[in-house]
Amino acid sequence: MTAGQLHFNAFVWPNGYHESAWRVVDDDVRGVLGLPYYADIARIAERGLLDTIFLADNIAIAEYRATHLPQTQFDPISVLSALAAVTSHIGLIGTGSTTYNKPWELARRWATLDHLSGGRAGWNIVTTITPLAAANFGERAHPDHADRYTRAHEFVDVVTKAWDSWADDAVVGDRERGVWADRGKLHPPRFHGQFHDVEGILPFPRSPQGWPVLVQAGQSPAGVALAARYAELVFSGPPSLEAAAAFRADLHAQAAAAGRDPAHVLVLPALMVTLGGTEAEAQEKARRLEELASPEFRWQNVLYTAGLDPDGFDPDVPLPAELWTGDANVSSRAEQLFAASRAQPDKPLREVAQQLKSGAGQSHFVGTPEQLATHILAWQDAGAADGFTIMGSTLPYELTAFVDHVVPILQRKGRFRTEYTGSTLRENLGLRRPGVG
Ligand SMILES: Cc1cc2nc3c(=O)[nH]c(=O)nc-3n(C[C@H](O)[C@H](O)[C@H](O)COP(=O)(O)O)c2cc1C
C-alpha cells in the first residue's frame, strides 16, 4: 500500500506544551498574552505548509494552575479571527464545548470564522471534562460522562442543520429586481429535540466550506463513537504504535459501520517534540524541562484532567477507594487514574500521579529531525497515523525546528506537500464539501 500525504496540526500553547516551558524560554513572561505571540506561531506553521493550527479551550480553570502555568485561555474564535488576518492558507481549528454553548450560537461563531478566513475553519468538538465549568455557567450540576456524549450527538446535528440553513446558491444579488437572496433557498432548522430547540436560519449565507471541518479528541468508547459518526479529523493520545494502529482501525471500522468513508476520517495522534542537532543535545533540553517539573503540579493536574477538583484531595494518602470502585461511566483520563489506583491501593496519590502521563496523554519525542522523520513515517506506514498533532515542548522554538528541519526531509521523500494546493482547509485535507441545494 502506498502511504498518502501526511497532515500536520500545530498545537498552540503558551510558551510550549511542556509544563516547564515558560521557565526555560527567554521571552517576556507576559508575551503570551499578546497577538504577536500567536501571529508568530501561525506564520511559522504556515511557512512549513502545515495543515492547521489548533487552539484548545478550557472554560474553568482550577486555581492551582495559575501557580504553575501561564494562563492564556482566551476565547479561541477571537484569537483565530485575528490570525485569519495574518495568514492566508493554514487551517484554523478552535475548540468549542457541546455542554456549555447553545448550538445556534456556536454554529454562527464558527461559520463567521469560516467566512472571514475564506474557508479555513475547524471545530474541535469537546464535551468538557471539568465539573468546575458548571459553576461558571450558572448550572447546578455538571452532566455525567454518558449524558454529555448523548447531548453532544444532538448538539452536532443541530449545528450542522444551522450551517445548512442557506443553500449554497441562495445569494442571487439581482440589483435589477431588488433580490439579494432567494427566500426559497432558505432551510430553517425547525429542530425540536431532547435537549435543544432551534428554529431559524443563521443570519448570513452558507460559509465557504459549508461545514467547518469537524474535529474530535475523545478517547473513551463514547468519545470514539462520536468521532466515528461525525469527525473528519481526530486527535488521539495513544501510548504506543500498536495502540495507535488499533485505535485507528477501530475508529475506521465504526465510521464505515455508520455509512461513512474511512478515508475521510484522518487520525493525527498528539506528539510532544523536543529536537536537537544531535540526540545528546535534544536529551539535554528534555532533561532540563523534566528537572524543573513540579511534583505538586503533577498530582493536581492528574486529578483536574480526570475531571476532579484537586482542592478536595490530600496527595499524601491514597485516592479514596469509593472513587475507583464506582461505575465505569467516567472519562478515559479518569479511568487511567482509577486503574492505577486500583492496582496499588496503598500508594499515596502523589506517587500514583507521578506514573501517569499528563496533558492530552501525548508521548514525548526527543531526538534529531532525522529520527523524528523516521518515527513519523514508521507510524504512517504501520497504519497508526495520517500525520501528527505536533506539540512543541517549547514554542515557537520546537515548531521552528520542525518546520525548518523535519518538513524538508518528509518533502524529499514525497510524503508532504511542497505547496498548498487547495484554497480551503477541506481541500488541503482531501475532504469532501457537504453541499446544500
Ligand atoms: C490533542 C487533544 C486536545 C484536546 N483538547 C481539549 C480541549 O481543548 N478542551 C477540552 O475540554 N478537552 C480537550 N481534550 C480532551 C478530549 O476532548 C476529551 O474530552 C477527553 O479525552 C475526555 O473524553 P473521553 O472520556 O471521551 O476520552 C483534548 C484531547 C486531546 C487528545
From TrEMBL:
InterPro entries: Diverse_substr_monoxygenases, Luciferase-like_dom, Luciferase-like_sf, NTA_MOA. Residues 34-384 form the Luciferase-like domain. Coiled coil: none annotated. Signal peptide: none annotated. The keyword Nucleotide-binding does not apply. It comes from the Bacteria. It is an enzyme of class 1 (oxidoreductase). Its EC number is 1.14.-.-. Gene3D superfamilies: Luciferase-like domain. CDD domains: Nitrilotriacetate_monoxgenase. One of its GO terms (molecular function) is monooxygenase activity. Keywords: Flavoprotein, FMN, Monooxygenase, Oxidoreductase. Belongs to the NtaA/SnaA/DszA monooxygenase family. This is NtaA/DmoA family FMN-dependent monooxygenase. It comes from Amycolatopsis nalaikhensis. The lineage of its organism: Bacteria, Bacillati, Actinomycetota, Actinomycetes, Pseudonocardiales.
